[in-house]
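Lab notebook, bench 4. Still working through the backlog of constructs that have no structural model yet. Next entry is a single chain of 491 residues. Request: give me the structure tokens for it.
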Amino acid sequence: MPAIVAAVLMLGGCSLAPVYQKPVVDVPAHYKEQGPWAPAAPADRLSRGNWWDGAHDAELSSLEQQVDKANPDLAAAVARDDEANAFLAQTRSHLYPTVGIGATVSNNRQSDNRPLRGSGQPDEYGADTIGMELDYDFDLWGKIRNEVNASRDLAQATTDDMESVRLSLHAKLADAYFSLRGDDSQLRLLRDSEAAYQHALTIATNRYKGGIAPAEDMTRASTSLYTVRAQISDVEGQRALNEHAIASLVGVPASDFSVSADPSPLNFDAIPVDVPSTLLERRPDIAAAERRVSAANASIGIARAAFFPDLTLSPIIGFQSTQTANWLSAPNLFWAIGPALTATLFDAGRHEAQLDAAHAKLNESAAQYKSTVLHAFQQVEDNLALLGKLRDEARSQDLAVQNARRTLELALDQYQAGAVSYLDVFDAQTAALEAARSAIDLRTRYLHASVGLVRALGGGWSEAPQADAPHQPAPQQAGSAVVATASNDGV
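Model written out:
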């Protein structure tokens, strides 16, 4: 008997799951589009922090805090995480014995014609039973332990999924907010231009009435005025949509939500870019994909264990009597104890198919993990490239804005002096407005790329950026200077 117990204990420590090996992915030593950003070296599982504070905008920070409190999509992700952890606790319970107790009190009558009924048996009798039963699976081949391992890995993956949802929602809110603030800047530009074009129309009308300008000058000035008014309506519509998107993200009905206009230019602090190897530790979607590979590996052990016998022990003890009087007395005691061994002799290949499916699931999970890693590096490189190119583009656009402003000044002076027609002013107005709007659009795109980089890196850091990391401010908003000058010139 001791030898049998020892053998059972030894078998209870074995597992048929393969030794888990994390999928191998080639990790570059540095980012191709690294640019001027200095690499950081955060520790594993570093807090992502309130990365949106890098915009130094109190309203954005306040809205971002509401996402964690009121967003229903995040609440659903949290509930899924709670569900996964509850399932893990349920699976762990199978490692321990199950103890149950039950009692029945019944009065029974048996048929006079019941087969094999003895002549001395009563027509009616009582059957009162109370007992306790214990069920325990010895888990000789590690099936239950691998089920626990798989459940734990999937629970961790669900937690990482929740963090992915959280990161995505915060990024969506920042994108919508930056778009809305870009709309505010565009509206200020267009409304200043509207006032300037109205003044220009007055000049053209007075010159026409004075007989020194043709009627075409008034129609061209009117065209500029009505065009900019149409653009104002278009941007106002875009702003409303962005405002509605923000409302949904913070869990408020769009009808009860508004964001006050603020055309002040936004900036965003430099984003320290972690080294490529650290990216695999920080991205929650990568972590989730890796945990699912581990769960699939444990599932192979579950499938393999099905080929071997299952040993269980189910002892029972209790009292049974035909009457409640002296029910719990020694003569009414009964018990039964003994192991049970069950095995499958024939299943038409079901176990083999389950094992094949487990291996295929492992291969699928490993491929998905590698795909997630590749997409992560692509996203980082994409946003690094965008940030660098947008900065170069903004410098050129600033020069274009300055030249368009100067051209507009000269065209207006020459028109008032009668040296050129209003067509020159019209062309200069159009070019100056388009250049200024492009400058604002570039700034908004830069902010979107900054958010994209934060998202690609798996979030920000709670610690401050390294001292040697150069500050990378957003491109200057040259458009506002153009508008002020054009407005002062009366065009």
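Notes after review: Confidence is low (pLDDT under 50) at residues 1-9, 36-46, 463-473, 477-491. Residues 108 and 125 are 5 Å apart (CA to CA). Flag for follow-up if needed.
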